[in-house]
Each structure stands twice: as structure tokens, then as C-alpha cells.
Design goal:
The structure holds 3 protein chains of 3 kinds.
Chain A: E1 7-9, E2 12-14, E3 21-22, E4 28-30, E5 51-53, E6 56-58, E7 74-82, H1 86-93, E8 101-106, E9 109-119, E10 122-130, H2 135-158
Antiparallel strand pairs in A: 1-2, 2-3, 3-4, 5-6, 7-10, 8-9, 9-10
Helix pairs in contact in A: 1-2
Chain B: E1 11-15, E2 24-28, E3 31-37, E4 43-46, E5 52-58, E6 61-65, E7 85-88, E8 92-94, H1 98-105, H2 111-114, E9 131-135, E10 140-150, E11 161-171, E12 174-180, E13 188-199, E14 202-211, H3 218-236, E15 244-245, H4 258-270, E16 276-277
Parallel strand pairs in B: 15-16
Antiparallel strand pairs in B: 1-6, 2-3, 3-4, 4-5, 5-6, 7-14, 8-14, 9-10, 10-11, 11-12, 12-13, 13-14
Chain C: E1 2-5, H1 10-22, E2 27-30, H2 42-47, E3 55-58, E4 61-63, H3 66-77, H4 87-116, H5 122-145, H6 158-168, H7 181-191
Helix pairs in contact in C: 1-3, 1-6, 3-6, 4-5, 4-6, 5-7
The chains are: A alpha+beta, B alpha+beta, C alpha+beta.
């Protein structure tokens, strides 16, 4: 059973199916069917280091020497799944991604997109805006990101990514 | 293994009450089949190439086999007791292994978390020891002396009671639950899970019941059981791995899982592997 | 007030949920929708010739559209659920009430196809459902930017109840909610409302209950 369906009480994550609870280190704390049992240390789930870098949640691939990048002056706005690869996003934006960031200018405003490839033709796109943007500007940025997604998916569907 | 042993078993393929001459297209273990009312009044089930399959009508359902069953369909003697209400709960499709559907039915430890305030509730989560055996004469898996605290064990139950259970697996994709019958102490309610394997990872589930309950309207009985099963459905569709592992190593059983352990052992012994995986992947 | 109800119907659940949240007692009349097809029988067709459920009956008022039932319950018992009557918020409530029918026609039909074997073009239904979820996600993102957690304001309204069930049950039809973080936050916010009730397929938030102290011997 996927633990993402489970629930968090205090500092423990519990499975929705049988309520087995796990500590942050991944060890099983509690098996409700056997309340008197102390779960053996061999019962554990795989854990993943995570870091919150300026509102963006990062997990490492391998053992990186440094912490996650920081995007000074930018604030994360929303995350979106795009049914297209990075090349199609670049074609739609008319720019190339540099260090994982793609700039997209729409109606005179620029949004910055942090891209993570989720599969061959699927990209998780995190939308970043100037941290001092007001709500109207943030809504415009969110809509610009929607427009970019539509364009990129059109590119991907018609096979015109360069 | 040269032949899938599950080919020669019986499977539910439709409700007897919905049988008509027009027929219904469905599938059995990957093979398209058609279920209709024959001119002689019996169920007629045809396979992919038009061949006529063995079929019978029992326990509210049409049963069929792709192969050559050596035994008649398993008996549920209680189902023929006078005074029982027979409840056709109707089909629910689930994107899961048919064996996973049965295994989940045999499990009680999930009641407080999945059937909260109906079949279980925190803090009453403990599973007491019970007995499990593979009965060699009948060639069935049995779990007896199972008990669990339930806030609302049945539509006819008022308030929480400690419910007694017996589980029986007479066929690889069928299980029968005998459960405390609130209006008639001394008798057991019969609640079954009949599973039609469409593919190794897809099944149609046909719950059926034979209850002593003269009070509750039929529709309430149907809705109670549909509620329970659909609460399980999202769990079943998110099991990992999708196929039921028959070899130890992938999942960690505890004492509460002894029925599942025996079920898996019995499946493996018979080569009932449609919907199973043998080697941990 | 009498509700002709099917326990697995998300549209019926909207009415049960709204009644629970507004403190209205319903007289539930269960309908054998599946497998019996009772909604297409003479008794129910006499009430609702369209052959759909829910049906809400109160005196000589008979309602057959779930959005109207939500408005009726709210207006009678808890008008704050109707939302603010200023032009913008009032229009937003109507916008999402109308939008909710697209969820029924796409995600709801996909669920009926996958779960209860009803006919339908599953790929088309999932595509339409995904398009609707993207619109809802964008709408919720914009609301959060405005500092509002729900569809029409910072408190839940009939619009949220109209949209919530088919969205929460989208996985039943094979449409996953993983790509929609704003929808998942909103779903949690709805499930955390005082008086929330669940339906099969929508699990409650167990985290709202404290960890029980287990000492054995409970059973």
C-alpha cells in the first residue's frame, strides 16, 4: 500500500491500510493489531533526505556535495505537471533552459520555470515569480504558465519540438 | 507448470437474476465470454471461439469454467437453510489481482482504518490469536475463533459488539465469511466474496449474502455491503506489488496475517498462480 | 425532507454532506440503483422522469438537481453556505455550481464505467476529467493567491460541496490526483470541516483524531 494515502500524527507517518506507524528514521513504531508488540528494527520503510530551500522541497540524487540551489529574489508560486518533455517546453517558450530554469515571457511579463523531467514526455514545472510580486501579478504569472503548458503540449502532440 | 490449474475452477460470471436471452459479454482469465439464458432455461456460457463452457446457477450467480472442473461447485450448506434472506449485492469492478481481492477479504486488522466506525475503530485495534488450518479432507483454508470489536457489525447490529468470525476459502477466488448473527445468536450469517478474474490485474467482484434478518429492507442490506466493499476498493487498487507474492520476502506478516499466509501457501501448493507472482521482484 | 439516496452516488453524497454540515435531518429513502435499477422504475420515474437520483422531496417541492438541493438546504438552515452576495463572489459560486456538472459528466462517468461497468468511452471521459481538474486547480491556485482557501471565498460554500465529491473520487475512474497540489490541499480543508461525513471511497482524515493510547486488552 502506498504510504502517500496515509496520515501524519505528530512526527509519525501511518499507513491507511493497517495503521502501522513509522518514525522519521523509517523504523516502525507501532503495529495496531499487536499493541503489546515492540516492532523489530528490521521493519522499516525507505527514507529520503529532504530539504526546504526557499519554499521549494528538494530531494538529492546520489550524494551531492552542496545543498540545493537558491533562487534569490524569487518565490515559488505553484507546481504543474506538463505532458511534454523539456525540449517541447523550450520550443514553446522560445528560449533554452539554463541550469534547470526556463524563462518565459508572455504579455510583457517574465515567469521563471524550474523544470524536473518526470518521464520521457512529462515534466514537473515549478513556477517562480519575483518575491515582491503583488497578487495581480502572481495570478498573471499562473495564467502565463497555463498558456505555456498548453503551447508545449501542443508542440509535443504535433511532434514539432526542436 | 504446463497448465494453469485455475483453468479448471468455477468462477462467477453474472447474476442469475439478470440472465436474459440477449446475453452479456464479459471475460474470464483473459478470454472473452458471453453469458446468456439458454433456450432450455439454463445458463449458457460461450467462450472466445464459440465453444460452450460448463456452467451452472448457484448462490444467486451464474458460474462457469474455462476447463474441466473435477468437482462440482463448492457447497455452502447454510445457504439452503430456511428463513435466510439471500442478497445479490451486485458487481463492483476493481483494478487489482483477483487473489488480492480475496486476501483483503480475509484480513481483519484493516477494519479500524478502512471501515472506521463500522467494522472497527481505534483504539480497538488488537487482533487476538485465532486458529488457521488447511483442511486436507475438504482441501480448503479455514480460520476459526476469530474475534474483533465492531462498532456496527451488521445492518441489524445496534451499538458495538465483539463479533465472532470464521473464514473459509473453498476455491482460489472465492471466500465465505461466517459471522455473528445479531438477531439470531447461535446461527452464523453467511457473507461471501465471489471474484471473477478478468485478467491477472483486473476482476469483477460479486459479494453475496445469506442472512437471518427479517427486519432490514433489502436495499439497506445491499447498500451496507456495497459500502464496505467500496471502502476496500481504493485500497486494493493501490496495493504494491499488484500481483500477490506467494513466496515470502516481499511483505512482512504478523500473527494477525496467519489466514493470508495459509491462503498463499495453499495457492502455491495447487499452482493457483493466476494473479500471483512467485519470485520476489 | 426526504432524500431518495444511493450510498455510492457522489451526487447523493453532496446532499447528505450538505445536510450534515448545515445540521438538517434527512429522511433517507435508499434506492436500489445497482444492481436493481430502481431509479428507472415507475415509482421514481413518477417523481423524476429523467430517471436520475438524488431526488429531494419537501412537501410539494421536488428537486432533481443536486446543486439546487445544496442551495435549498443552505438557504433553509445555514445561509452562510450560500456565500457572499456581492457580485464577484456570488458569480463565482454560480460559476462553480455550473462547472460541477462537467465533473459529473466526465469524472463521474469514468467512475461508473470503471466501477459499475456502465458504458462509456473511457479515454475521452478521462481526458475531459483531466481538463476539468486542471481548471479547478488553476482556480484554487488563484484563490490561494487572493488569500482564500475555498472556491468562492475563504470559507466553504455550496460551490465547494458541489465540486468536492467527484473530484475526491476521480481515482475510482482511473484519474489520479497526484498532479494537483492545490486540489489536494482543498480536499483536506473540506475533510477537516467540523461535521464532515465521508462516503465509500473518501476516507476520513485519521490525523484529526489523536493517537490512541494502546495498552492491549482493549478488544
Amino acid at each position: 500500500m502506498r504510504l502517500s494515502h496515509g496520515f501524519v500524527r505528530g512526527e509519525t507517518l501511518s499507513c491507511i491500510y493497517h495503521g502501522w506507524s513509522y518514525a522519521q528514521a523509517g523504523n516502525c513504531l507501532r503495529i495496531p493489531a499487536h499493541p503489546a508488540l515492540t516492532p523489530p528494527d528490521t521493519i522499516r520503510v525507505v527514507t529520503q533526505p529532504v530539504e526546504d530551500g526557499g519554499g521549494i522541497i528538494w530531494i538529492p540524487a546520489g550524494e551531492p556535495a552542496a545543498g540545493p540551489p537558491r533562487f534569490d529574489g524569487l518565490a515559488p508560486l505553484r507546481s504543474m505537471m506538463v505532458e511534454a518533455g523539456i525540449a517541447a517546453l523550450e520550443t514553446a517558450a522560445g528560449t533554452k533552459a539554463a541550469e534547470g530554469l526556463l524563462d518565459y515571457t508572455h504579455a510583457g511579463r517574465t515567469v521563471r520555470l524550474l523544470l524536473t523531467l518526470e518521464g520521457k514526455a512529462r515534466t514537473l514545472m515549478h513556477v517562480l515569480v519575483d518575491q515582491d510580486s503583488n497578487p495581480t501579478e502572481r495570478i498573471a504569472a499562473s495564467r502565463a504558465a497555463e498558456a505555456l503548458r498548453r503551447a508545449a503540449e501542443h508542440v509535443a502532440a504535433s511532434g514539432t519540438a526542436r | 507448470m504446463t497448465r494453469n490449474a485455475m483453468i479448471d475452477e468455477w468462477y462467477p460470471v453474472g447474476l442469475a437474476s439478470q440472465l436474459d436471452a440477449h446475453g452479456r459479454k464479459t471475460a474470464l482469465m483473459g478470454e472473452p465470454i458471453e453469458v446468456r439464458l439458454g433456450e432450455d432455461g439454463n445458463a449458457k456460457v460461450t467462450g472466445g471461439n464459440g465453444r460452450v463452457l460448463r456452467a451452472c446457477i448457484r448462490y444467486g450467480h451464474v458460474w462457469a469454467s474455462l476447463g474441466d472442473p473435477q468437482k462440482p461447485l463448492f457447497a455452502i450448506p447454510e445457504a439452503d437453510q430456511p428463513g435466510r434472506r439471500l442478497v445479490d449485492v451486485g458487481v463492483v469492478r476493481v483494478r487489482c489481482s483477483p487473489l488480492r481481492a480475496v486476501e483483503n477479504f480475509l484480513d481483519i486488522a484493516h477494519f479500524p482504518f478502512v471501515h472506521t466506525d463500522i467494522l472497527g475503530a481505534e483504539p480497538h485495534t488488537e487482533v487476538q490469536n485465532y486458529k488457521v488450518e488447511i483442511r486436507e479432507d475438504e482441501d480448503e483454508v479455514w480460520a476459526t475463533q476469530v474475534q474483533f470489536y465492531q462498532p456496527q457489525a451488521a445492518k441489524s447490529a445496534e451499538g458495538g459488539i465483539t463479533t465472532q468470525y470464521m473464514y473459509r476459502v473453498p476455491a482460489p477466488t472465492c471466500s465465505i465469511l461466517y459471522k455473528t448473527c445479531p438477531p439470531r445468536p447461535g446461527e452464523w450469517d453467511v457473507i461471501t466474496l465471489f471474484v471473477q478474474p478478468l485478467a491477472e490485474d483486473l476482476c469483477d467482484v460479486w459479494p453475496w449474502m445469506a442472512l437471518f434478518d427479517d427486519e432490514t429492507p433489502m436495499t439497506d442490506l445491499i447498500h451496507f455491503q456495497q459500502t464496505i466493499f467500496v471502502q476496500d476498493r481504493s485500497i486494493l487498487e493501490n496495493q504494491i506489488p499488484g500481483l500477490l507474492p506467494l513466496d515470502p520476502g516481499m511483505e512482512i506478516p504478523t500473527r494477525a496475517d496467519l489466514t493470508s499466509v495459509a491462503y498463499r501457501r495453499w495457492l502455491k501448493r495447487h499452482g493457483y498462480t493466476y494473479g500471483a507472482q512467485l519470485v520476489a521482484q | 425532507m426526504k432524500l431518495y439516496d444511493y450510498v455510492l452516488s457522489p451526487s447523493c453524497y453532496k446532499v447528505r454532506l450538505m445536510a450534515a454540515l448545515t445540521g438538517v435531518a434527512l429522511d433517507i429513502r435508499p434506492v436500489d440503483f445497482h444492481p436493481g435499477g430502481e431509479h428507472r422504475g415507475p415509482e421514481l420515474l413518477a417523481l423524476n422522469p429523467a430517471g436520475s437520483i438524488p431526488i429531494l422531496e419537501d412537501g410539494d417541492l421536488v428537486l432533481t438537481e443536486s446543486s439546487a438541493m445544496l442551495v435549498y438546504l443552505a438557504a433553509k438552515a445555514a445561509p452562510q453556505w450560500l456565500g457572499n452576495d456581492a457580485a464577484g463572489p456570488a458569480a463565482r459560486v454560480q460559476q462553480w455550481l455550473s462547472f460541477s456538472h462537467r465533473l459529473t459528466a466526465s469524472l463521474g462517468a469514468a467512475r461508473l464505467h470503471e466501477m459499475l461497468l456502465r458504458p462509456g468511452n473511457i479515454d475521452a471521459l478521462r481526458g475531459q476529467g483531466t481538463a476539468a481538474l486542471r481548471e479547478l486547480e488553476a482556480g484554487l491556485v488563484e484563490q490561494r493567491i487572493r488569500g482564500q482557501r475555498f472556491l468562492a471565498s475563504d470559507r466553504p460554500t455550496v460551490a465547494d460541496i458541489a465540486c468536492f465529491p467527484y473530484v475526491a473520487l476521480a481515482p475510482d475512474g482511473g484519474v489520479l490526483l497526484d498532479p494537483y497540489p492545490a486540489i489536494r490541499l482543498w480536499s483536506r480543508a473540506i475533510r477537516a470541516i467540523d461535521g464532515f461525513i465521508e462516503m465509500p471511497g473518501i476516507h476520513r482524515l485519521h490525523e484529526l483524531k489523536p493517537e490512541p493510547v494502546l495498552g492491549g486488552g482493549e478488544a
